[in-house]
Amino acid sequence: IDCPDDCSEPGEQCPEIVPDFVKLAESFGVNAARITKPSEVKETIQEAMDTDGAYLIDCVINAEENVFPMVTPGGSVDNMVLKEDVE
């Protein structure tokens, strides 16, 4: 998802995310954050590690992005696709 830099929640310029896992986690008293840009990963992981208790990280990834390891639709973890399998 390509959200503008000042986007903190889905809205007019940013696609709606359903369900909103951050709000869902917070409704159960769990700290949470959404990552929409690679530049946010390190800081968010550090925040999660510095937080006592559970912390949910909702990492939004473009559908076209290849993220490895990958489990194909309908597949199982026994048939995981690794980066070297597609190179």
Topology:
Elements: H1 21-27, E1 31-35, H2 41-50, E2 55-59, H3 83-86
Parallel strand pairs: 1-2
Account of the protein in words:
With 87 residues, this protein is of the alpha+beta class. Helices cover 24% and strands 11% of the residues. The chain has 3 helices and 2 strands. It has helices at 21-27, 41-50, 83-86; strands at 31-35, 55-59. A two-stranded parallel sheet has the order 1-2. Helix 2 (41-50) links the parallel strand 1 and strand 2 (55-59). It is globular. It starts with 20 loop residues before the first helix and ends with a helix. The model has no long low-confidence stretch (mean pLDDT 82).
What's the gist of this structure?
By secondary structure, this protein is an alpha+beta fold.
Strands of the widest sheet, in order across it, are 1-2
- Regions with pLDDT < 50 over 5+ consecutive residues? none
* Shape estimate: globular
Distance between the termini: 25 Å
The H/E string reads HEHEH
Radius of gyration: 15 Å
Q: From the helix content, strand content and strand pairing, which structural class follows?
A: alpha+beta
Summarize the amount of helix as a percent range.
10-25%
- Please tally the helical runs, counting DSSP H or I stretches of 4 or more residues: 3
- Please summarize the sheet with the most strands: 2 strands, parallel
How many β strands by DSSP?
A: 2
If you average the pLDDT, what whole number results? 82
